[in-house]
Design goal:
globular, alpha+beta, about 550 residues
């Protein structure tokens, strides 16, 4: 069994966690469940003893919390928590050194006396955040007026509705206007509500719940000539407009969130693969001598691969965090590492969740078995803190143009390193020949941007897994899986044949099979698994508690 000790395991005994993940059904129930998400989020970060310093320095405790399986006991709590801690406190804290008022607000947020939000994107401006329409206009007395000129300028998604009777403060990204001149997108600290009612001039409209995901009180937030004090601006006004680089630096915590949120895919896939494996051991088919369905290759390959991915991704996460938190790593390279990690792990997690759900048959369709609900939650993570595809388009372009680089491989002879080199050089030759503003670049390279970044990430994951000592059978399973993602390249270059690739997969599965039970138990997520299908006793109890329709009483049946 696993020797991992997660601080959150004791939280599973609390009533507020036992109620997690229920179907909202109505708006009132959705709000109640969303309120519980804040209570669960608070319990998680306080269990870790997370401090202001942990958030600002990105301590090991900060990163470990984002790999805790408790996150998938209920996805809404982790959504609330990462906005509150990383985006809100992390951004406000950047400007708090000589601001006692900001220090007080940050401390109140750490103690859950107040909640924090981060409002960047708008209904009409998502990925083009540099074109935000919300304005904060400097007044003659040094104060500001915050205003949404139309509905498309309303802030979209952050859960800004009043909860639990506690005040909510948000970092509102707005176009600073001074004397009629636009000075760039700047952060403003604004109190949105007092926990019961919205503040003057601010409205929050509750968005219907996301399909398949646990409820979060996502909202559309609108500002109508809201008066802000002189201290609302985070940072200095300056005497000239801020640059695009200034904006990217100011939203630095989004890059942190890109890496931290993506890491949540690791415990998600651990839980999903644990469920699929244990269920496949229990489920038997055939007569007169039934065998467990895990004995079939069609069941083994996707499940074993998913388990292998969790071990490799853990190694990759350590590698990425090491480089990301190194003060010597250039700012652009940090963004690159976060993007590469997110692209790889979210692709692995989404594809594997879909396959694992299918391999559980009809049982995989229901949220009580967790896999399909986790898949729905992850669709949000793909977009949160930067849409994966758009992040990859920008990064691929900049790497191909040589504006900066990422760490090179430690084993250029590996199959994955050869693939990375091949696809990158192919794209770079086109970029050099036609230019990055050409139609050829737009037609042939942009659609392949995500594939290019994933190729780099697969190589990094492999190097990290070897360095961290991940068991060889799991590394081999991982390699076989990523080879299949672009098998055409290996065939074109003559490095592999289809038969040889099939042999590699078969050998890897055979080597992993005798040890798979230990690998699965070694992930240490059993306490966080709620799916009733893993054992006959839990399934029978689950069925006994279902709403039951029975035949009419005998006297009525005769009527």
């Amino acid at each position: 069994m696993s020797s991992r000790n997660w601080p959150s395991e004791e939280l599973l005994k609390l009533d507020v966690f036992k109620a997690a993940g229920n179907n909202p059904g109505s708006r009132e129930n959705a709000l109640a469940l969303a309120n519980n998400a804040y209570l669960r989020a608070e319990a998680i970060w306080k269990t870790y003893g997370l401090t202001f310093e942990d958030i600002m320095t990105l301590s090991p405790k900060f990163w470990k919390m984002h790999q805790d399986p408790i996150a998938w006991h209920d996805g809404s709590s982790i959504t609330v928590m990462t906005i509150h801690l990383n985006l809100a406190i992390g951004t406000i804290g950047t400007y708090a050194k000589n601001r006692p008022d900001l220090q007080k607000i940050c401390q109140d947020m750490i103690e859950a006396k107040a909640f924090g939000q981060f409002c960047l994107t708008e209904v009409g401006h998502g990925l083009d955040a540099t074109n935000l329409a919300t304005t904060a206009t400097l007044q003659s007395d040094g104060t500001f007026e915050l205003h949404s000129p139309d509905g498309y300028a309303s802030k979209y998604m952050p859960p800004t509705v009043p909860v639990l009777g506690k005040p909510c403060y948000a970092v509102i990204w707005s176009q600073l206007v001074v004397g009629g001149e636009k000075r760039g997108i700047r952060p403003f600290l604004v109190q949105l509500n007092d926990g019961v009612n919205m503040c003057k001039g601010i409205t929050s409209k509750l968005i219907p719940t996301r399909h398949g995901a646990t409820p979060v009180n996502h909202a559309i937030t609108h500002f109508t000539h809201v008066k802000l004090g002189a201290g609302a601006l985070l940072g200095e006004i300056g005497d000239k407009p801020s640059t695009h680089e200034d904006f990217l630096t100011a939203i630095w915590r989004i890059a942190v969130g890109t890496l931290a949120l993506a890491a949540l895919a690791i415990p998600a896939l651990q839980i999903a693969s644990h469920i699929a494996y244990k269920y496949s051991l229990r489920r038997h088919v055939g007569a007169p001598n039934p065998v467990p369905i895990i004995s079939f290759r069609t069941q083994q390959i996707p499940i074993f691969t998913a388990v292998a991915q969790t071990y490799v991704m853990e190694a990759m996460q350590k590698y990425m965090v090491k480089h990301f938190t190194d003060e010597k790593t250039p700012h652009q390279s940090r963004h690159a590492m976060a993007t590469i990690f997110k692209a790889v792990v979210m692709d692995h997690a989404q594809v594997s969740h879909f396959q694992l759900s299918e391999r559980c048959g009809a049982q995989g369709l229901f949220d009580y078995n967790q896999i399909v609900t986790q898949f729905s939650e992850m669709r949000g993570i793909v977009i949160a803190e930067g849409d994966v595809l758009v992040l990859c388009i920008r990064l691929a372009s900049e790497l191909l143009l040589g504006r900066y680089s990422v760490p090179q491989t430690t084993d250029s002879s590996s199959l994955i390193a050869q693939h990375e080199k091949g696809v990158f050089e192919e794209a770079r030759s086109l970029a050099k020949k036609y230019g990055h503003r050409s139609q050829v670049f737009a037609d042939y390279i942009l659609p392949r941007s995500k594939d290019i970044i994933e190729a780099i990430g697969h190589r990094m994951a492999y190097d990290a897994a070897v360095s961290e000592g991940v068991p060889q059978p799991l590394i081999d399973l991982y390699v076989c899986n990523v080879i299949q993602k672009d098998i055409g390249w290996y065939l074109e270059t003559g490095i592999l044949t289809r038969a040889r690739a099939a042999d590699l997969t078969n050998t890897a599965v055979k080597a992993a099979e005798p040890k798979m039970n230990d690998y699965v138990d070694g992930m240490g997520v059993a306490p966080y698994v709620k799916a009733p299908i893993l054992a006959e006793a839990t399934w029978n109890r689950f069925v006994d508690n279902m709403y039951t329709f029975r035949e009419a009483p005998e006297e009525r049946a005769a009527m």
